[in-house]
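Sanity check

After download, print the first record. It should look like this:
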Amino acid sequence: MGEAALTSLYYRLIWLLPVAFAAHIAEEYLAGFPRYAAEISGHAMALPLFLGGNILFILVMAALVGRAAKTRSPEANFWVLAWAAGNQFWNFVFHFALVLAFDRNSPGLVTGTLVYFPLSLALWQAALAERIVRPATLAAAILLGGAYMGAVAAFSIFHLGGL
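Expected structure tokens:
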């Protein structure tokens, strides 16, 4: 392993992604996000589904990070950036939008604001500065992450289409 690989900010930051995700889920759980989601959407959110789905998403994040760290491939890094954009950056945007839409706190906003948002910006800056991805590739990953987060919110929280 070369010296650049050991000192790469990007490859140090990606290891924070699963940790940040776990901290966010802990905040949502402790602050009552399943109850909150049921109140704003009119659809119950079962605790086992909330925890099980989020634990699965954290494990996917950890697997993607591990693969990217090991292979350093453009494809592996694209999927880390897309998954992180959806689960972290766009999740922050989602919580912020809920506050604006419902005029009340959204459980998860604290870690979204203090962890997800700055970590996303730092990760993207490092990915570009270290030429991990090209700007167009990063933009595609961020947009794909947004589509993913939108689908998760639409179908699992608001039950769009009756799902």
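If your output differs, re-run the checksum step. Summary of this record's structure: The chain has a mean pLDDT of 94.
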